[in-house]
Amino acid sequence: MNDKTLLRQDARVITLVGLAHGTSHFYHVILAALIPWLKPEFGLSYSQLGLLMTIFFVVSGVGQAMAGFVVDRLGARTVLFSGIALLGLSAVLLSSAHSYVQLMLGAFLAGCGNSVFHPADYTLLNQRVSKARLAHGFSVHGISGNIGWAMSPLFLTFVAGRAGWRVALLAASGVAFAVLALLVLNRYALRPEPVAVPVAGKQGAAGGSAFGFLKLKVVWLCFAFFLISAIALAGIQTFAATSLVSLYGMSLATATSAYTCFMFASAAGMVYGGFLGAGSRNHDRIIMIAFGTAAVLALVLAAAVVPAWMAVVLMGLIGLVTGISGPSRDLMIRGAAPANATGRVFGVVYSGLDSGLALGAMLFGVLMDAHQPAGVFVGIGLFQALVILTALGVGSNSRMAAMPKTA
């Protein structure tokens, strides 16, 4: 295969997988975006609305760990198609809801659909993208998720404001089914590799059994990495804007623009991070520098020693440096995954992401209820600093495993 053909193949796979990932992130916030309509329609409290999101992430986190095993058994393409179909069906169910229980069932179904994406996506990227462009594939994968997060509230509130929340959810189902149709039309590009049979007794084959990889310390260090970094992300996503209003006396619109700046800067950072990660073997060190810088910036925000306009800039810088770490993070975990266990490893470690988002929202909510807006940024900085320890642990273990054994 010549370079031009290989480039075309890589670009096609990266684009298709990125589109699927963006769809999953689009569904992360379909309920949150419609709170102004759902609250009066069903007479719900904010706690009840929050529980719907908790159901989504808990189901997604538990399902993600299991989905990895299914990916390794049935193939990533089949599992990916099933996940997108479940997302579309969940939106149809939510659009027809007439009770809180039906909303809960819709959130449950959406969580099931969302659970498949990381193990399926990363398995397809690892199998179908050349090693030279894999870092760029991970970069696009992360950027597409950010785009999904950004587009969902814009799309849903636009439709809901003109045609109602039920039509908005039906339109969201149309997005999922349209993406599914496109993936099916391009299914050959996403063909899975034959499932290999593990070789008994070899750690490279996931310890010789389906669950053998769970005995590896590096897998749980990767899980801890995602859990801790997601707690910090939850603080930024849920309460950073509110905290900025209290700490700097800025308007909510300005504070919201600071979060938008964080998101777009994170996407830009991922683009650069793809080039940086492709040219490095020390991915843990890139992560250490990125999260160390982010932690310091978060503590500066907590101290409220800069003018309001600079707080917006600092939020952007935090997004930039954490975005840079994204491709290196994925490459680091790929290097830690035993042979023939990619889906299982990515499923288990990425379940830490959902767990961290659920825990972080509650933790930082307690700080806000205690009227501690500065504590939100202190907590964000603390968890970002703790991420460094897990990244160094993963890198150290991976390098030791790669060293030749001596008699």
Task: Walk me through what this model shows.
The longest helix has 32 residues, at 217-248. This protein has helices spanning 3-28, 30-33, 35-42, 46-74, 76-95, 100-114, 117-128, 134-163, 165-185, 217-248, 252-278, 283-303, 308-336, 342-369, 373-402. Residues 195-207 have low confidence and may be disordered. The chain is built from 15 helices and no strands. The chain is mainly alpha-helical and 407 residues long. 52% of the residues are buried.
Give short descriptive properties of this protein.
407 residues; mainly alpha; 15 helices
Specify the structural class: mainly alpha
Strand content: under 5%
Largest β-sheet summary: none
Helix content: over 70%
Order of helices and strands: HHHHHHHHHHHHHHH
What's the gyration radius in Å? 21 Å
The total beta strand count reads 0
Give the N-to-C terminal Cα separation. Answer: 41 Å
Continuous helix count: 15
Low-pLDDT stretches are 195-207
Overall spatial form: globular
Assembly type:
single chain
Overall pLDDT, averaged? 85
Protein topology:
Elements: H1 3-28, H2 30-33, H3 35-42, H4 46-74, H5 76-95, H6 100-114, H7 117-128, H8 134-163, H9 165-185, H10 217-248, H11 252-278, H12 283-303, H13 308-336, H14 342-369, H15 373-402
Summarize the structure in short.
This protein has 407 residues and is an all-alpha fold. The protein has helices spanning 3-28, 30-33, 35-42, 46-74, 76-95, 100-114, 117-128, 134-163, 165-185, 217-248, 252-278, 283-303, 308-336, 342-369, 373-402.
